[in-house]
Structure formats: C-alpha cells, structure tokens
Specification:
By secondary structure, the chain is an all-alpha fold. About 70% of the residues lie in helices and about 5% in strands. Strands 1-2 form a two-stranded antiparallel sheet. Pfam families: DUF5997.
C-alpha cells in the first residue's frame, strides 16, 4: 500500500501556464486582429504576458495609443457600457481618432448612454453603501450578544 502512495506524491515537472492569443489580447486590452501574426498564431505563457505588460514592445504601445481598440476599451473611453455601444450601433473596433470624433460629435445616443451609465454607477455606490451599513449593524448586533 505504501509503495502506491509514494508514486502519487512524486511532484510532476511544472509546465508553464499558457493562454490562447485571444485571452492574452483581452488581458492586454488590445484588439486581437490588429496584433502581429506571430502573436495571433502562437500561445502566450504567463511569463510572456507579464513581460509584455512590464515592457511593452512598440506594436503594443502603438495599438494601445491609436487602436483599433476592442469594444470594452471603446466603451470605457466613451464612458458607456458595452451594451450601450451596441444600442448606439457601434459593433466594430474603433481607433482613438474615431473615438475622439464621436466624443466631439456627441450624438444623442452617446449622451443618453452616458446618462444611463452615470445612473448605474450611482446605484452601484448606493447599494454598496447599503450593504456596508447592514454589515456594520450586523457586526454590532453580534458583538452585543457575545
């Protein structure tokens, strides 16, 4: 019996954690089709991702600066939700220049979606504060009994 347990506890050599290019692009906040072919075709290790984040190559710096940007980044830069982008008809990646043009134009859908997003944020703060107060009251009640 002990001989079989010995085999189970032998440590396996560590293999580096890897991810698909789409996952790495998402973590880097860039639009995958705009990345170099070698990035799109390979796998990215955790160490490679950390290196890209710590010391971004020129292509990554350029993509982050000028785009095209993925929808979550576009939404954040416009101050709306991803759903709000879709409601406004924005379904593709946009460049920084296109985002700035949209901000300058300030169409009615963008104004409406920014208002909605502001209300959602206010509600999230209100709910968080409510939960904090409830937790404080519960903790005080628990202390009072002990």
């Amino acid at each position: 019996m002990l001989a079989t347990l010995d085999g189970m506890t032998t440590p396996k050599p560590k293999t580096p954690q890897t991810m698909k290019p789409a996952t790495a692009a998402k973590k880097l906040g860039v639009y995958l089709p705009a990345t170099p072919a070698e990035f799109q075709e390979g796998v990215v290790s955790r160490d490679e991702l950390n290196a890209l984040q710590a010391d971004p190559p020129e292509w990554l710096t350029e993509l982050r600066r000028n785009g095209p940007h993925p929808r979550p980044v576009v939404a954040a830069k416009l101050g709306v939700s991803i759903s709000g982008l879709a409601r406004g008809g924005v379904t593709e990646a946009l460049t920084t220049e296109q985002i700035e043009a949209l901000k300058a134009e300030n169409p009615s859908w963008l104004q409406q979606e920014r208002t909605i997003q502001a209300e959602v944020r206010k509600e999230a703060v209100r709910v968080k504060e409510k939960h904090r107060k409830e937790a404080t009251q519960k903790a005080e009640q628990t202390r009072g009994r002990g």
